[in-house]
Amino acid sequence: MPPIPLKPFYMIRHGQTEANAARIMAGSIDSPLTPRGIEQAKDAQKVVAKLDTKPAAIFHSQLSRARDTAAIINKAVNVEMFEDANLAEIHAGVLEGAPYDQCEELFNSWPSVKGGEDPKDFFKRITLGKSKAIERFNDPVLIVCHGGVMRAFGEIHSVETPGRFENAHLYEFTPNPENTIFPWHVFDYRLCEKSDKLIKQRSDIYESDFASAIAR
Questions:
Q1: 205 with 184: CB under 8 angstroms?
Q2: Which of these is catalytic: 14, 146, 157, 169?
Q3: Which of 63, 76, 139, 204 could pair with 208 as two cysteines, CB 3.0-4.6 Å apart?
Q4: According to the model, what pLDDT value does residue 163 have?
């Protein structure tokens, strides 16, 4: 697969789902947003509304948790939305519906799971989905996806990213071609609780693992 285009973009995980709240693995199961997840998406909408550079379009998976999060966020920008199954969460096979404590290996590495999607195939479709989204517009797009998709983006670039992506937390990726391992600077956004001011800061969600990636 060709590399993912080195262009700026935004990426966010969906809001909390019923599966998240129950602490079970969803994977390809279509688990809907909880009331809390809807509120998280509304908070993300407020963040996106304050961006200096708004998304030119929104891309999301076919799973309702990503689609509904995208639709709520889009009320801030009213741009075209595109659905792409290549951006969906990994199919976790026999672990779909399993409690989190049975899924630690899946959250922290990329094992082959009985009846599940081969991790290499997952990486290929994520590369395809992200590349199609990023290439389609000159300006940055927003990709609304899943925790496994965000972890896979690191793995594709040989950066280990154990499951630590918050629900509905916005990340911005700006090209950094000087780093040949993970060629983006990563920023995250949140609103100041006291002033409602938008706070942008560098994130080490991927970059903190450069040293271990180089050593492998």
A1: no
A2: 14
A3: 204
A4: 64
